[in-house]
UniProtKB/TrEMBL annotation:
Residue numbers binding ATP: 8-11, 174-175, 180, 185
Domain of life (superkingdom): Bacteria
Protein name: Aspartokinase
Pfam families registered for this protein in UniProt: AA_kinase (PF00696), ACT_9 (PF22468)
EC number(s) stated in the UniProt entry for this protein: 2.7.2.4
GO process annotations (BP): diaminopimelate biosynthetic process; homoserine biosynthetic process; lysine biosynthetic process via diaminopimelate; threonine biosynthetic process
Organism, scientific name: Peptoclostridium acidaminophilum DSM 3953
Keywords for this protein: Amino-acid biosynthesis, ATP-binding, Diaminopimelate biosynthesis, Kinase, Lysine biosynthesis, Nucleotide-binding, Repeat, Transferase
Gene designation: lysC
Length: 403
């Protein structure tokens, strides 16, 4: 049996017809090297954003099921066009939707998780010598409804297929040369990394480095999928994601910025057992994920609880905020979407107060106030005012000499 290579091309890599032809040539090159090739593609250019805009022109709060029906069409356009390009170059190819290639997800529309991939169709097409083009970012739930995997989810489609078929490699082709020490569009001195560990990459991705969908890194780590990120426009080697024991441990590997978050404060809640339980179970029932949590133990048996959520979840949160207030007896629920989360990540920073103080010193030198802090063994994150975020990011990059 031939070795399988899974390749994924992002929206900017299939942004127009010339670029689609360029991808077709690369795919054929890989096939000609003797591999079985499965390709996942995203919607062309800004298609997904444009579809969301159209939906919002009709309703401020469209149902998640219909959003998934709409957004999944973007990827369907690009798989068909790429398949046609490959056909016109004389190769046998088939394009498949998520459902057609057996990607079964749960029912959490707009952020579904893949439960299983029934690989029968994929295996049949490969055995007949075809190149397969799979629509990224989508699957189907047990009711046959189309689901999507969350923004950037095509990376996860690629890794999940690679894991399910035991592929030799999963290559993520994008519009930068690989993974950098910080977003190269925001920090021009950012340095391309040859290698980074799964753990550090997962943390950077979860903390806002848009280059990989977090779930794709999680799956790659779990199923030991060799993963590489590289440019679809150049021929460089890119960045390999590897196990921690294959690289040198450093205190700070990279910096992430997430400005897609909002801070919610539930003010003056009674200070007694069960309040946090009630609050977070209501959020859980409504599929709202929470990141940082702070409880200010304060005045006369009342507390304030603040936490951060994704901006995408803000509309769902607002629907239940009044119920939350009443159920737990809070005085007020406020939210602030002018914040951002700035983080440093490195497997060697575990508990180092030296690293922490350097981080806080950098923000202090810029006069940036810290609203929330959280740490884990491989990251430190601060919530700060969004207007200061990029300045802070550049300063941290310089302070930790990552350039
Ligand atoms: P694609 O459409 O190919 O999936 P994305 O826009 O999702 O591309 O991801 C690539 C982008 O991720 C880059 O253009 C870059 O601006 C951004 N990015 C953020 N953090 C990083 C990082 N640490 N390294 C590389 N790129 C990053
Ligand atoms: N098209 C989807 C998005 O823009 C999925 C992806 O590109 O990975 O988020
Ligand atoms: Mg992406």
């Amino acid at each position: 049996m031939k070795e399988i290579i899974v390749q994924k091309y992002g929206g900017s890599s299939v942004g127009d017809i010339e670029k689609i032809k360029n991808v077709a040539r690369r795919v054929i090159e890989t096939k000609n090297k003797g591999f079985d090739v499965i390709v996942t593609v995203s919607a062309m250019g800004d298609t997904t954003d444009e579809l969301i805009e159209k939906a919002l022109m009709i309703s401020q709060n469209p149902s998640s099921r219909e959003m998934d029906m709409l957004l999944s069409t973007g990827e369907q356009v690009s798989v068909a066009l790429l398949a046609m390009a490959i056909q016109s170059m004389g190769h046998d190819v088939v394009s498949l939707t998520g459902a057609q290639c057996g990607i079964i997800t749960d029912s959490k529309h707009k952020k579904a998780r893949i439960n299983n991939i029934d690989t029968k169709r994929l295996q049949k097409e490969l055995s007949e010598g075809r190149i397969i083009i799979v629509a990224g970012f989508q699957g189907i739930n047990e009711n046959q409804d189309i689901t999507t995997l969350g923004r950037g989810g095509s990376d996860t489609t690629a890794v999940a297929i690679a894991a399910a078929l035991g592929a030799a490699k999963c290559e993520i082709y994008t519009d930068v040369e690989g993974v950098y020490t910080a977003d190269p569009r925001k920090v021009p001195s950012a340095r391309l990394m040859k290698r980074i560990s799964y753990d550090e990459m997962l943390e950077l991705a979860e903390l806002g480095a848009g280059v990989l969908h977090p779930r794709s890194v999680e799956l790659a780590r779990k199923f030991n999928v060799p993963l590489v990120v590289r440019s679809s426009f150049a021929d460089s080697e890119g960045t390999e994601i590897v196990n921690m024991d294959q690289i040198e441990r450093v205190a700070v590997r990279g910096i992430s910025l997430d400005d897609d978050i909002a801070k919610v404060s539930v003010l003056e809640v009674p200070d007694r057992p069960g309040i946090a339980f009630k609050l977070f179970s209501m959020l859980s029932l409504n599929n709202i994920n929470v990141d940082m949590i702070i409880q200010n133990v304060n005045r006369l048996s009342v507390n304030d609880i603040s936490f951060t959520i994704k901006k995408d979840d803000m509309a769902d949160f607002l629907k239940i905020s009044e119920t939350i207030k009443e159920t737990i007896g809070a005085e007020k629920v406020t939210y602030d979407d002018s914040v951002a989360k700035l983080s440093i990540v490195g497997a060697g920073l575990a508990g180092s107060t030296e690293v922490m103080s350097k981080f806080f010193e950098a923000l202090y030198e810029l006069g940036i106030n810290i609203q929330m802090i959280s740490t884990s063994s491989i990251k430190i994150s601060c919530i700060i005012d969004r207007d200061n975020a990029e300045k802070g990011m550049a300063k941290l990059h310089e302070k930790f000499q990552l350039g």
